[in-house]
Amino acid sequence: MRKMKMSENEQLIEPTKLSNLSLNTQYIKDISLKIPDAPHIFKTMPSSPSLTVTVDVNAQQMIEGEPNFDVTVFIACISTTAPPNNDEKAKVIFNLTLQYAALISFPTLETSNLEELLMVHTPDLLFPEIRNVILNITREANLPPVILQRIDFATMWKEKRQENQNITEIDINPDTK
């Protein structure tokens, strides 16, 4: 995917310009829940376990030259107990990974906005279902329910672009000895 520069004051696509976006289908691409210490963990479940959530977004064109894309949001939730003292490690209560995807198409969007549509607006559309899937899985597994807070995909996208820009701007010269 080609890189595009975005200035600090550049605005995101207006919601009214997204009306030609077609969300053809959304689906669970992959899901995994591991409870390493089951069933023992249920006897010693802490009231306030620690939770780490990581998020990533990936998009790829289905067929070159056609406006159809597969956008996947990756979410990993790892819950741990607090270590009893400094000598012991925290125990993993559960490890939940979810790949939630959508097939989208848009016949008339400008290519200058393509990356933003794929990496910001599509994940925003998917987020309510992602939150629901994670909540239901953790609740049905008799784990502390995970209710994800809103994810700022726009900021995440801008930061990732900035990191990628910094990486590509590094001048790599072979040592000349």
Give a brief description:
The chain has 177 residues and is of the alpha+beta class. Helix content is 25%, strand content 29%. The chain is built from two helices and four strands; from the N terminus they run ββββαα.
What keyword list fits this structure?
elongated, protein transport, Bacterial Protein-export protein SecB, 4-stranded antiparallel β-sheet, alpha+beta, about 180 residues, unfolded protein binding, translocation, disordered C terminus, disordered N terminus
Question: In the CATH scheme, what's the topology name?
Answer: Bacterial Protein-export protein SecB
The fraction of residues in strands falls at: 25-35%
Protein structure class:
alpha+beta
Under CATH, the homologous superfamily reads SecB-like
Pattern of helices and strands: EEEEHH
Distance between the termini: 37 Å
* Largest sheet report: 4 strands, antiparallel
CATH class: Alpha Beta
- Which stretches of 5+ consecutive residues score pLDDT under 50? 1-9, 170-177
Radius of gyration: 20 Å
The CATH architecture name reads Roll
Average pLDDT works out at: 82
Overall morphology: elongated
- In the sheet with the most strands, the strands line up as 1-4-3-2
Q: What's the total count of β strands?
A: 4
Compute the number of helices. Answer: 2
- The number of domains: 1
The helical percent reads 10-25%
